[in-house]
Amino acid sequence: MNKFLSEFDSPPNRVDTSSLKWEKYADSDIIPLWVADMDFKSPQSVIDQAKISADHGNFGYGCPPKGLVELLISRSADLYDWEINPEWIVWLPGMVCALNVCCRALLEDSSQAIIQTPIYPPFLTASRNFNLPLVKVPLVLEGSRFTIDFNSLATLKTNPGDLFMLCHPHNPVGTLFNKDELLSLTNWIVERDLYLCSDEIHCDLILGKDLHHISPASLTSKVAEKTITLMAPSKTFNIAGFGCSFAIISNSELRLKFRRAMRGIVPDPPAMGFLLADAAYREGEPWRLSLIDYLQGNRELAMIELAGMDGLVPHSPEATYLLWIDARTLPVDNPHEFFEKNGVGLSDGADFDAPGFLRLNLGCARKLLTEALARMSNACKKLRTT
Ligand SMILES: Cc1ncc(COP(=O)(O)O)c(C=O)c1O
User: How many structural domains compose the chain?
Assistant: First the structure.
């Protein structure tokens, strides 16, 4: 029995709470299942800490609370079997900012950035923001799972110092790259003498007891030397609005490059961000495990319902709360607009470099998801009869 079931089943009403996700459709009857945040309350430890901080009433500059770094270190050892050192950690106010800092930091070394498409939109823009050429290597479908196209990588032209930007687990396709895939990828990266930026923001929401997140930098010291790993509690504990993320960089030269690229531009996380991160990691574990259970239930429901809709091919995510749907055979010009008109606001695949696809956010109450799926199903049925 899920200890937090009733909490997940009855999240707070987010209308008129300055929520990006809900304000988009504030004046219309469209269920928002787009941007990647969840409708659930954060764990109680996080809410309690926010109240303590608010009551304290001082909102000056922040620094990490005592014990947070040690907590990250023990968590990393326990959850990812990866021993990290305190000095490897660089605090950041967000992950999009970190992706951009990676590109800026490596401008002198890199002749191009390489990404795998479809992908979370800031991967498409970060290198371009610094006029660093971008190379896209599409993921390939094996069965119904998207994975790395090693044939394309083998023939790809690269120069030493180029930047490979990995999203792992992958947003939007939901793939958790396994050990074999990561070993092949990192061997290629080391052979080619590339840098790796590994965005692992979704690594604490792995949907399955047999699946485990592996950080590429934990595989070998050679890989670690070339890698900037990015993590955050923001997606897992729904505290994205409080901007607290971190990079893990074991190579001191690379860390210096990264810090230099941040200088004068990137602020520290706010005190509240640090404190909520600490509360989430320290006491939010039972909640996180229950959340995973609830998300698996939502995934199962959505997979069954979507598979029955003509014109849609859903891809079951191995991680996180985002479900990627191939809608290219749906007989409409724009699937995203079509479902909006029928009362469901999904993310448009075009934003991820994949027009004709959709991304559905499962991070909501099951009742709301059920209603959204019913609307989608009715819309698909209507298409057949008209
Ligand atoms: C892969 C990935 N990286 C980064 C982010 C955004 O992180 P932040 O809000 O900390 O900028 C997201 C948000 O959805 C994401 O999915």
Answer: 2
Q: What is the CATH number of the domain that holds 347?
A: 3.90.1150.10
Host domain of residue 310: 5-43+285-385
Q: Is the whole model's pTM more than 0.85, yes or no?
A: yes
Whether residue 77 is found in the same domain as residue 158? yes
Same domain, 241 and 337: no
b (16+ CB within 10 A) / e for 233-245: bbbbbbbbebbbb
Cα 32 to Cα 20, 25, 29, 62, 363: the distances in Å are 10, 7, 9, 33, 11
Q: Which atom of ligand 1 lies closest to the CA of 94?
A: 10
Q: What atom of ligand 1 comes closest to residue 243's alpha carbon?
A: 10
DSSP 375: H
Q: Model confidence over 81-130: pLDDT tens digits?
A: 999 999 999 999 999 999 999 999 999 999 999 999 999 999 999 999 99
pLDDT surpasses 80 at 21: yes
> Best of 235, 237, 238 to mutate for ligand 1, by most ligand atoms within 8 A of CB?
235
Question: What mean pLDDT comes out for the span 157-180?
Answer: 98
**One domain for residues 13 and 87:** no
What's 218's domain CATH number?
3.40.640.10
Pocket of ligand 1 (CB under 6 A): 36, 94-96, 120, 167, 171, 199, 201, 232, 234, 240, 245
Q: From the CA of 174, how far away is ligand 1's center (Å)?
A: 14
* Other beta carbons within 10 Å of 27: 6
